[in-house]
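Internal QA ticket QA-208
Title: Verify multi-chain structure generation after dependency bump
Assignee: T.L.

Test input:
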Amino acid sequence: MHITLTELRYLVALDKERHFGRAAKRAFVSQPTLSVAVKKLEGELGVTVFERNRGEARVTPIGRRIIEQAYRVLGEVSALQAVAEQGRDELKGPLRLGVIYTVGPYLLPHLIPRLHESTPDMPLVIEENFTGNLTQQLRNNELDAAIVAMPFEVSGLSNWPIYDESFVVVMPHNHPWTEREQIPANELANENLLLLGAGHCFRDQVLSLCQDCRESDSARRTKSGSSLETIRHMVASGLGVTVLPQSSIPNLSQESRLLETRPFAGAAPTRQIAIAWRRSFPRPKAISALRDAVMQCDPSGVTLLHGASASNVDDGFLEAV
Amino acid sequence: MHITLTELRYLVALDKERHFGRAAKRAFVSQPTLSVAVKKLEGELGVTVFERNRGEARVTPIGRRIIEQAYRVLGEVSALQAVAEQGRDELKGPLRLGVIYTVGPYLLPHLIPRLHESTPDMPLVIEENFTGNLTQQLRNNELDAAIVAMPFEVSGLSNWPIYDESFVVVMPHNHPWTEREQIPANELANENLLLLGAGHCFRDQVLSLCQDCRESDSARRTKSGSSLETIRHMVASGLGVTVLPQSSIPNLSQESRLLETRPFAGAAPTRQIAIAWRRSFPRPKAISALRDAVMQCDPSGVTLLHGASASNVDDGFLEAV
DNA sequence: TAAAAATACTCCATAGGTATTTTAT
DNA sequence: ATAAAATACCTATGGAGTATTTTTA
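Actual output:
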């Protein structure tokens, strides 16, 4: 009924051998198989490609053109297979990665060189955004993976928690709390609590630490900053206290003498960071590579999940205070 | 095992619909058929072309490249079919025709315009030569058909007699034979018989008319000319007599008053003209068209064979003397 | 007569169908 | 709950084999 690639391959073999028996050998089939196939093709095309003689099969003028076209078809098929061959490596080709604002600035500087080393053919296209936007972009196929904070349950998306990160109280160096070893969460509401603006999941996570905080927030008694860095500057300038994730407590530069940090009293509040991706995303190895790279960032101060601890590299992404 | 054109068509359908059910409809198959085929193709290529979601099937980046390549493959297949479509007409494309020297000059001027009319897309590539050379060229695929004199039995070649043509005795106007109505063949040896050189089948046909001629020829008492025209001039100048085929007795111009023609006594000797071609030549219609065109040349003086007489066109290829 | 292609037939792989289950929203 | 795709299973076409015949040089 339809012309097939096999038939075209037989045509080419016959063009090369000009002899049904030898062409069949070249094509690794029996002579009748090739004979029947070529005849079928000629019937389908309504054209005689080969003039059969006892001595040799001669190509007709129209047959010549058809065979040349057959070469082109088979050439394009080879090209297709070559493309597939190239694309077979999941760790090749860009990965579009989204990161929430409160992780990106602290993780990426460490993650990118590591990923560049482990998967040099997988450049990252990075987008920083709120969790909600990242979610949408993942679903819309605008992103391939995202680094977000748990809980993160979205239909169609999978996630894989990578590490737990504790929260730390940050205050000016001359704050009364500097006299204490630990700060109880429920006392946060008594101070000027500086927080990120609405939309940041970290803001909500901090607010959930104590009922009073939530209330004082509804009463608009908290102040907002547009990034953790901004907030840190505000705290350093004495405007109040805040809570930061462990990873954002960096090698303090100028401000180092102006800020003090204290852990929470009791069980340390944490956030869980995870990688999320479309369930149907067809490059699971890319996700694994991403996870591995994150885990190789020195986990001091954070708790790696699911075994697979990274080696003790000392230029880790968290340099403990 | 191997990738098929059908699979590529399914790929394209799915690319257009981004939905397995609709793509199946577009490809006129059931949804499972298309699903299985696409999955098989992806397995064969080792690459995920489509990301399946509830909503729609999304093309992956590598899938995009593969689909584009699939379009190219199918495009070349279409081109191949278009070529075949073009070549399907046997009356299209050049026909390489050989003609023996003693027919060409008299038949071709009439044949070519007729063929141009009946089969305008089949130009003639013409070669005049001896029967032996034409035979070789036919077998070597250097010619497609030839017009020759019978008998013509060559393995691998078919032939089809078209017409019988009588022989005529030609003499100077002042020759004694002009007194007679008919000339007995066996008296030819008594005269200066002018003949074509060796190689021309017509020479041998004339020599076979009488035993004496053959003998006088072996004794090198005949004279040779290089073409029938040359011989006619020689006869007109009084050098001797000759025998010509009917078709070469043209509208006599200057020489008309210098030449006389007489039929043979008894059963008129004739030659039978035929079309020959490779048994395997795949354009039988071209042969038929050629035959028909020859037969449309006015057959006055020649005997058409196999019925199928041409209409009474009066500018026929033979204008009786 | 010998070589080559075509035919006859048999078999089985697989493309395609229908019915159903699984999956994901 | 529903829509979509995947799976299970069955059927039939036709691609490929072997054995044989036909063709033709």
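Spot checks passed. Residues 225 and 231 of chain B are 5 Å apart (CA to CA).
Status: verified.
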